[in-house]
Amino acid sequence: MGCGTGALSSAIIGAAAPAEVRGVDPAEGLVESANALLRGAHFAATLGDAEELPFDDGAFDLVVAGFVFNHVPRPDAAAAECFRVTARGGRLALSVWDEPRNAPFFGVIAEAMALAGIDAAEALPPGPDPYRFADEDELRGLLGRAGFGEATVSTVEISVRVVDASELFAGIVGGTVRTATALEHASEGQRARVATALAEVVAAYRSGDGIELPARVKVAAGRRAG
Length: 226
What we know:
The chain is α/β, with parallel strands linked by helices. The chain is built from nine helices and seven strands. Strands 3, 4, 5, 6 and 7 form a five-stranded mixed beta sheet that branches. Strands 1-2 form a two-stranded parallel sheet.
């Protein structure tokens, strides 16, 4: 769910071959990219909404949602859809980012934007709290309300390495949703100030010939009773 370019689907296919994987995403360009990446594999992606999945009841042994639930307007509706399309005895696995204060990978860009005088919240239309499910009780509750039992939540520590601040800035602009939108609405001068501030902020994370940024991910899983 939210298959994007197909990178996670590719990893699933590699780990669980010969699994048949179906991807869904609301962005036509991403669906095209995923199908192009995995052409000939046991995969097909289609356009669809997380809150109205275009699949039959009980169609899947495993439903995976990587960094999706922090974006959907009605997460309980999306979780209920996951439950509907999961076969009895099947599982749901999902991931969300931890709060920026616990994940410098996101925290540094937020700090740089603040230093540049950009309020990301003011630059965006109203939307769901992107870090609501960084709270483990909220995450377990999401699965429980949908009907999944045996809910578990774990914290995964990762590290993102970039060559310099400009590579990080380009990645944020090209690979995020809210932050990229806020930067797109900023003036050229404001974006330049963000880039300058970011170079200063990430200096503390320099390691060898690059920059090493810690990040934390919450991973949750639950099972539909057989």
